[in-house]
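Dear Dr. H.,

I hope your travels went smoothly. While you were away I took the liberty of generating a structure for the chain from your last submission, since the lab meeting agenda had it listed for discussion. I wanted you to have the full record in hand beforehand rather than looking at slides cold. The sequence, exactly as received, is reproduced here:
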Amino acid sequence: MADTPLDPQQAALFREVDDDLRHEQLNRLWKAYGPTVVAAAVALVLAVAGWQGWIAWQTSSRVKEATAFEAALSQGVDTNHEATAQALRDFASGASKGNRDLAVMKAAALLAQAGKVTEATALWKELRDTSNADPIFRDLARLLIVQHGLDQPGADLSALDAELAPLLGPSTRFRYLAGELRGLIALQQNRRDDAVTLFTDLAADRSTPYGIRARLREVLMSLGATVPDAP
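The corresponding predicted structure, in token form, is as follows:
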């Protein structure tokens, strides 16, 4: 049996009842969930505002830190390396990671220039052992420990050789410099043949930077060893 069509008045009444029911349902939903929705919206706005504030603070903080770094560098840099190194160390104690590493590296370099190799080495070791320092700075610190250690009377050559071990892998960034230093250690240990082998391998390797290859060819000539053909 076919449905009897509603007359216009009945249709209007049903629409009104339906609208009332929908309105009542929305009211119930709002009472139940409205406060949570508002709280979430407020939290979102505050989070965005907080993030923007954090970005602004970070920018301001970096400007202040850069200014402090420059001030530390300017303290007697041309006349008193030790004073500048101390200023940089003081700055590093409260600086962000990147600026901290730079400040420690610069302070150590100034101490080395002032003849304070022991103090400089202590800073390089501190940087080497800082777990969240940039790996490049940690590796550079190892190289500098060895480079300056070789010039010190009574140096522990075995310890210096061990310092280079993490840098000698086939994919490490400073493997060529580390290999060259290892050859110099071998020479100081009177292991000439080992040194010649190390230098020859590096000089014959096409991937070795040109400057290192050229330098090692001269070293091999001075040792009276066979110099490999230029790759």
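Two observations you may find useful: Residues 8-73 form the longest helix (66 residues). DSSP finds nine helices and no strands in the chain.

With kind regards,
E. W.
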